[in-house]
Amino acid sequence: MKVIAYYKNQTKHILVLDACQEEINSEDFFQEIAGVYTNLEIMFIESLILPVRIIEALINLVDQYGQETFKIYTTTESLSQYLFELSIPNIQLHRLSQIRSENDSEALIKFSEEELRDLLTGIYQIHGYDFRNYQLENLRRTISQTMLRETALDFDSFKKKILQDHEVYQRLFLNLSINVTSFFRNPVLFKELREEVLPYLNSFPHLRIWSVGVASGEEAYSLAILLDELNMLEKSIIYATDFNAFVLQKAQNGFYALPPLRQAGENYRKSGGSKRLEEYFHVNPYYARIKPYIKKKVVFFHHNLTSDTIFNEFHLIICKNVLIYFNSQLQENVVNLFKQSLHRNGFLVLGRSENLFNRQDFIKYKAGFNVFKLFNQG
């Protein structure tokens, strides 16, 4: 993190670069905000997310100064949106270019399959992320939307931006890798885990669970809450992984907007929950933060299903709505990875629209649910 501070017209300005990860020199930031000023403005430059301490400091500054004398500026849509979710007012500074509507003519963004594959190969060679075995139509849709946001005149110029400008690539990467999630999404499945799968696994002295494609963490924390209500949390550890460092930091922060959390209360009750979902959070007027005893049982790791190897030996692997983005060969590779990462009596949970088709090494645990048990002959 780099911090630059200066005064102008009775206002203290603080510029913060590379604030995505909390480092030792982040103390420079806290030194600069100490004291009382007539006006204070903070600008976060190209930061996608902020660590916990800085989020808490911003809330204290909003309370201390009010919105008239304290302003926060951001240069990325992801950080601006994250702060708004936590009820922290901010002003996003847009790039100095004309913003085209995403409903513009598709004639502006046509490109061939060969051009798309060539772009994916370039991304892998230069940026190290392999999207070559993702479903092409999903990729085409996301890339087209990103081209419109970047006001690219044609595919060749867009490709050049992606391969040469890391900031443009980062914006595409976020669009390609962020999944929609919520607490206790698909409550019927969580009820099945509560009543059938986890009681079966309770015979083990220790439990290891892998939540794949964790996004902003709601699924992993939902599992921890469920385990707590079954008196299984203390002997369990949840490994939550994603290949997107931005969403991992967001999940590790454990901050969540209040309206969707309250909406998720109904799903929590449908899953068999008997308390109020808010009881598992410290709630203030800005946001809810997951309680430490829940948070400490979830550990977050960077893991890429397309390139990384066996992760551990797990009793339960949950991978919902991830395989649908892969082609058939990559799906096969990933399921083989899961098989090698499972305990011999372990379970694999997939999304509602995903399946294992004709594989003989997994059996469906119960009709109507995409819960599979590793099949061991003899």
Automatic annotation (TrEMBL):
Pfam families reported for this sequence: CheR (PF01739)
InterPro entries: Bact_Chemotaxis_MeTrfase, CheR_C, CheR_MeTrfase, SAM-dependent_MTases_sf
Matches recorded under SMART domains: MeTrc
UniProt cross-references to Gene3D superfamilies, sorted A to Z: Vaccinia Virus protein VP39
PROSITE patterns on file: CHER
Sequence ranges assigned to domain CheR-type methyltransferase in this UniProt record: 104-378
Single GO MF annotation: S-adenosylmethionine-dependent methyltransferase activity
Name of the protein in question: Putative Chemotaxis protein CheR
Organism: Candidatus Desulfosporosinus infrequens
Taxonomic classification: Bacteria, Bacillati, Bacillota, Clostridia, Eubacteriales
